């Protein structure tokens, strides 16, 4: 509140964690370091699991504190506990916007009221669980899933951009693909265009992202704005992975990524002269940026970035609302990925 591969779609499985344990990362902590009330949430391998869901949270590009914070926040949400959930939010400032539907809340009381209306109707087995977290306790990008029944008949696989202050959420913006939810169902829930929020309140939290993440985000955004795939390719590490979730595209390696970004420049909603960076979050290892586009069918979205120790991009994941484009655009985006 998506389908490139099962790992990208569902997070890191227990088997996948064992295979990738050598990667380490600040988000993978020993169970013995967890406080007693939450120790049961750590698997035998030491990775963070989520109660009631057979996944291990990929926190390889997040700090331990933000991984624990997000996990506990979504555990309270999954428990359909509005008061418990609201303890994770700042009283002032606070902003929560669904970037696909236009649902928005700008104060603590109205958000608490909304949760009090939604949560009593949730199925008992409903969950809102994280699969991948990028960043730190100043700001993070969170991949999470709202299971069917929480906000409609289908699940929502979202990418949330979250700012924190003193471990409280001050701003959360959720991006997801309306096609995965269902085009008609998305359209029924979306607010009218003339009431859709124009201001996403990034000015209320400021820019706190690490310099390395800002540099990677703005340099990439400039290359994409110019349609310069070759320059963009220079930003990627040798084994980098490019994923566009709504387009169902995955590409590996800088040369192939650069070729795709050049060939698909006129089709990708986050490429071209009308695009701009709205807001950056994250650490030197993980985060990303929200983007806007003043011309074209998709006005906004998010790009998540994982960086190596040299500031090179090792994984890029793009999320935007695919229900805003027609079938032919998605077909063309897939065709551009065919290598010759």
**Proportion in helices:** 25-40%
Structural domain tally: 2
Summarize the helix and strand pattern as letters: HHEEEHHEEHEEEEHHHHEEHEEEEH
Q: State the low-pLDDT regions, or none.
A: 1-46
Annotated CATH architecture of the largest domain: Roll
Give me the count of strands: 15
| Broad shape | globular
State which percent range the strand residues make up: 25-35%
Number of helices: 11
Structural class: alpha+beta
**Strand order in the largest sheet:** 3-6-7-8-9-4-5
Rg, Å, rounded = 19 Å
CATH class of the largest domain: Alpha Beta
Mean pLDDT: 89
Question: Any chance you could write out the topology, listing elements then pairs?
Answer:
Blueprint: H1 6-10, H2 14-19, E1 49-50, E2 53-56, E3 58-62, H3 64-78, H4 82-86, E4 95-98, E5 104-105, H5 108-118, E6 128-136, E7 139-146, E8 156-165, E9 168-176, H6 178-181, H7 183-189, H8 211-225, H9 229-233, E10 236-244, E11 249-252, H10 254-263, E12 275-282, E13 286-293, E14 300-307, E15 313-320, H11 327-336
Parallel strand pairs: 3-6, 4-9, 10-15
Antiparallel strand pairs: 1-2, 4-5, 6-7, 7-8, 8-9, 10-11, 12-13, 13-14, 14-15
